[in-house]
Specification:
The protein is mainly α and about 300 residues long. The chain has helices spanning about 1-25, 30-55, 60-90, 95-105, 105-150, 155-165, 170-180, 190-210, 225-245, 250-260, 270-275, 280-310. The radius of gyration is 19 Å and the shape is globular.
Amino acid sequence: METFNFTLSVIGPIFFILIIGYILTKNNVIDDAFVTGASRLIYLITLPVLLFIHIFSADVQLIKAIPLLTAGVIGTLISILLAWIGAQFFAKDDISVFVQGSFRGNLAIIGLSWAHNAYGSEGLAQAALLMAVVTIVYNIAAISFFTFYNQKTSFSWGKLLLDFTRNPLISSIVLALFCKAIGVTLPNLLLKTGNYLAAITLPLALLCIGANLNLASLLHSSTAACAATGFKLILVPLIMLLIGWLFHLPAESMAILLLLAATPSATATFVVARAFNANSKLAANIIALSTLVSIITASIGLTLLSYFLKTI
């Protein structure tokens, strides 16, 4: 019962805020303009501030997080390879979309929310470091697949590198680590202001995701969308846990690895698919289906992991 209550406290609030966002949109309390403006505010300001504050304030050192980061990168690379193999059977005409939807998780919002609910600031700081490293792998893999399978779109590695340097999420994490390394001391006024901004980030972002849910698309989910969802929510977490076990990660790191691996397909998969003139409808179906199903699969996974870790 204790294990179930822990899982409910981690996953439950996220689910309800998503549903609230969906209901508010259907009742015209929030509209597309609100979601667009709020999403821009989150991406450019509040989420980078949240990542900076929690990494800067937490007692997490990069050197100690290397086993977790290494496990995350290796697990991601294996997942990408297996997703590509699976695409040959389920989506031969939409390989790039299938592969991206199968491995690219919503780490920045749902993953961080789960980690914060489970382990507070320390868990969020570890998750943020893992997110930063894995996101680089995500972007390189996604762009590579779309460039290879969607020949109509030109691509520049220089532009990709420039995009990384301009990414506010990665920049805020690097800045926080640098400030910790050189022993910077921030005034209490700035820390309190940052905490106020950080506090609105996750609830507001979850409302926006809920507002963008398209339940009608679930009725038209294809075999490819169902296969990609199953791969993302079941196979990827299992791969990550296996790698984490081989690295002898501690219990909390194993749970964080699971929570980030069990996230639904990221909304960025739709954006990238559309930019490369790929099958954006398939991408949207994968996002919608995986977002709802992940509530169940993540709950089961965290419950089983919590029970297993207590017995060893």
